Amino acid sequence: MAECYLFIGSGRFHPLGLQEKTEKPVLFLDIEKRTLEDLSEEKDGMKIRRGMRLEKAAGMKVFGILVSTKPGQIRLKKALEIKKKLLKTGKTAYILAGDCFTAEKLLGIKTDVLVNTACPRIREDYEQFNKVILNAEEADDLVKMIKG
Predict the structure, then answer these.
(1) Alpha carbon distance 55, 70 (integer Å)
(2) CA triplet 67, 69, 70: central angle to 5 degrees?
């Protein structure tokens, strides 16, 4: 059994995603910067931000569920499942399908929260969208939280 994970590459997105999914420490060997970083220290901050997203989303009413049409990112079944669950909690939910999601492409679509079933990187661009963005797993946790 491994005691920690070593991610070798560049860019923090993937190793931070791994750190979010595991309880074990993640070491990040950045081959471009030639640095070794322990990302386990960021785990608490990630949990706090996640909790804040869930709390904020719980008070929102209209959810847009993003479904990508790109090969390898199509998760329509999961999106429909999330929509059904959100509707049962009294929320309004729409499926939004597209090849690429940007703030400009979603202008005029009135949603409070975006639920991302497409590329996980979208959640990291929350400032661009100026909305709460949850990933699919967080949406499931939100429904459990609302039901009590």
Answers:
(1) 31
(2) 115
